[in-house]
Amino acid sequence: MPQHRTTVEPHLAWPVVDYVKRRHLPEPLVYFDAGFNPRDPQFEVCTIRQRRRIPLTYEERNMAVATENIVITNATLNRWPIDMEPIPGSRRIRVIDVFRAIYDTYAAPLSREDLSMIGPEYIQRCEPAFLQRCKDSNEPTHYLEYAGMRRIDLLRGRRIFKGLAYTGVVYDRGSHKHAFELQFDRGN
User: Fold this and answer.
1) Span 47-83, pLDDT tens digits
2) Which of 10, 18, 72, 91 is an S-S bond match for 163, by CB 3.0 to 4.6 Å?
3) What's the CA gap between 85 and 68, in Å, rounded?
4) Whole-angstrom Cα distance, residue 27 to residue 47?
């Protein structure tokens, strides 16, 4: 009989917790549009302070989210889980690592296989969100349209980070990962 060690639910750093669940606390709202690379200064992860978007501070970006392996999934984009493990040397996953992994995973273009599995009807319903993302970018719209639809476009415009919700522990081949559900919002 396999032995499972008990694990404690991790305490998430406030920038990745849904604001609705922590709005009674002094920490501000976090703004991240997963359609754009948070490494780009124009689209970096921000907090809303005094009605202005202010980039996360160095300390906020480097807050620990986890010290063990985690997996992040989204109900709509569940075929592309985000598996993360602590960075060698630091032995932790930082807030900024989570936002970068979300972008990197969902910015991938849809393959022909993806498009056929998803089906033309749903792809057609996603097209307005795809075109809007292309317009919202700082890159030439025609270039992005030519590059094609990305995984994030399947959310049909719901690309604003809302938060992570802990869903439990996933066991796989004798090891475990803490699992989180990634939630998005429209932002308007």
Assistant:
1) 998 889 999 999 999 999 998 999 999 999 999 999 9
2) 18
3) 6
4) 9
| pTM for the whole structure | 0.92
pLDDT, average across residues 30-59: 95
Q: What is the predicted pLDDT for the residue at 63?
A: 95
Q: Is 133 helix (H, G, I), strand (E, B) or coil?
A: helix
Q: Are 69 and 175 in contact (CB under 8 A)?
A: yes
- Gap between the Cα atoms of 80 and 106, Å rounded: 8
Q: What residue ranges do the domains of the chain occupy?
A: 14-108+157-185
Beta pairing class for 160-172 and 175-185? antiparallel
| CA dihedral angle for residue 80, residue 83, residue 15, residue 95, rounded to 10 degrees | -130
pLDDT above 90: percentage of residues in the chain = 76
Give the other-Cβ count within 10 Å of 22's Cβ.
14
DSSP per position, 8-45: PPP---GGGB-HHHHTTSSPPEEE-BTTS-TTSGGG--
Q: Exposed (0-12), middle (13-18) or buried (19+): which is 115, by Cβ within 10 Å?
A: middle
Phi/psi at 117 (5° precision): -70, -40
